[in-house]
Automatic annotation (TrEMBL):
<dbReference type="InterPro" id="IPR053234">
    <property type="entry name" value="RPM1_Interactor"/>
</dbReference>
<protein>
    <submittedName>
        <fullName>Uncharacterized protein</fullName>
    </submittedName>
</protein>
Length: 158
């Protein structure tokens, strides 16, 4: 028989599947479903992705795309861009859905390039940039406070 057993979790758990079988044809599937107390799938999980295959162990290959790809179809920080990989492409280029990690604004922000190594296009998730992000937030808050203070002083004619 060409069925494939994925494992037998403990007997106590009712919600867990006791056995996952794989049948190669529909008749076999029906037979299994009737006779065996197990969940039958109509493909062999090993056919799709063999993680024991050494050629796959060091690198990640896209086998198939199903639905949306998080880092290409949704907003993402520049360093996580799937269209322009951070390690292999110049940091200042960006796709339509890249945003600045520091400013939380759609790229390019006003400090995207032009600050040398401190340009926001180079930002990625590490301690240094986390601090830059925190400082920038504090600065933006201070600016807002000082503007409100200005407005208050102006309106009260002091
Ligand atoms: Zn992008
Ligand atoms: Zn920025």
């Amino acid at each position: 028989m060409s069925n494939f057993a994925m494992g037998r979790p403990g007997k106590r758990s009712r919600t867990e599947l006791r056995l996952v079988c794989c049948a190669k044809n529909r008749d076999e599937m029906k037979q299994l479903e009737e006779k065996e107390d197990c969940f039958v799938i109509d493909f062999d999980p090993n056919d799709e992705l063999d993680i024991s295959n050494p050629s796959l162990s060091n690198d990640c290959h896209v086998i198939a795309e199903k639905g949306q790809v998080a880092c290409r179809d949704y907003l993402h920080p520049r360093y996580a861009c799937a269209k322009f990989p951070f390690k292999k492409t110049p940091h200042d280029i960006h796709c339509k859905r890249c945003y600045c990690y520091v400013c939380d604004l759609v790229a390019p922000c006003k400090d995207w390039v032009g600050l040398g190594p401190n340009g926001h296009c180079h930002a990625f998730y590490n301690k240094y940039w986390k601090n830059v992000k925190k400082l920038r937030r504090a600065y933006v808050k201070l600016l807002a406070i000082s503007k409100r203070l200005d407005d208050f002083l102006m309106s009260s004619n002091i």
